[in-house]
Amino acid sequence: MSESHSDAVTVALQKNHHWAQRTAKEHPSLFPALAKGQQPAILWIGCADSRVPETTILGLQPGDVFVHRNIANILHPGDISAGAVIEYAVAHLKVKHIIVCGHTSCGGVNAALGNSALGIIDPWLLPLRNLRAEHAKALSGLSPAEKTQKLVEENVLAGVKTVRQNSTVIAAVKERGLTVHAMVYDISTGRLKELDSSEDKDVAAVRLDAFETSFETS
């Protein structure tokens, strides 16, 4: 480990100790309660970018948000990791909200708008490249920054669509009102914006017909 990296970890540990002491003083019941279990109201599906720390930007505390993050907050329908997180959060933790969140200046989105080979990242970015191709006409007249923003938003909406196709999510929406949200975080302002991810009734009906499943009982 280099000296600079070692210093960064040392500082992080020191700050952790200070944070733990301050938090225990300001919220004396927090850590004892967390030691007994978690009851988060929100599942956050976001980007791994270091500039988008979900609990911090939401102004919440440890235990409030269950989290899944990856490069460019891409949701592949067959991704077992994301699927397991969604299943656990919805079926077992009983979260009330799922937030799919992208952000401005996303490196993964910018990579998908370019044509450089990136190795193992390339197959991961395929859904973004598919969105780029699907919205090529709309993207063609935009500035580079506008293209990034457009693809960021389309990626979030595609993620919401994938989440809503999950049978566990479908059941929770029907049985207890689970809500799925589409959001974009503006790194330059620290603000979240909610996108319109509402569905036409006919579209929703087709989705339910195709994706609603249940275990057969003997």
Secondary-structure element order, N to C: HHEHEHEHHHHHHEEH
Secondary structure: number of strands = 5
**What count of helical segments does DSSP give?**
11
In oligomeric terms, what are we looking at? single chain
Q: What portion of residues belong to β-strands? A: 5-15%
Mean pLDDT: 96
Give the CA-CA distance, first to last residue: 58 Å
User: Residue ranges: pLDDT <50 for 5 or more in a row?
Assistant: none
Largest sheet: 5 strands, mixed
- Gross morphology is globular
Rg over C-alpha atoms, rounded to the nearest angstrom: 20 Å
Alpha-beta content class: alpha/beta
Share of helix among residues?
40-55%
Main sheet strand line-up: 2-1-3-4-5
Can you describe this structure?
- The N and C termini lie far apart (58 Å).
- It is globular, with a radius of gyration of 20 Å.
- Strands 2-1-3-4-5 form a 5-stranded mixed sheet.
- It contains 11 helices and 5 strands; from the N terminus they run ααβαβαβααααααββα.
- The chain is α/β, with parallel strands linked by helices and 218 residues long.
- The mean pLDDT is 96.
- Helix 5 (107-113) packs across helix 7.
Entry keywords:
alpha/beta, single chain, five-stranded mixed β-sheet, 218 residues, 11 helices
Task: Give the topology, please.
Blueprint: H1 3-26, H2 30-36, E1 42-47, H3 54-57, E2 65-70, H4 80-92, E3 97-103, H5 107-113, H6 121-124, H7 126-134, H8 136-140, H9 144-164, H10 167-176, E4 179-186, E5 191-195, H11 201-211
Parallel strand pairs: 1-2, 1-3, 3-4
Antiparallel strand pairs: 4-5
Helix pairs in contact: 5-7
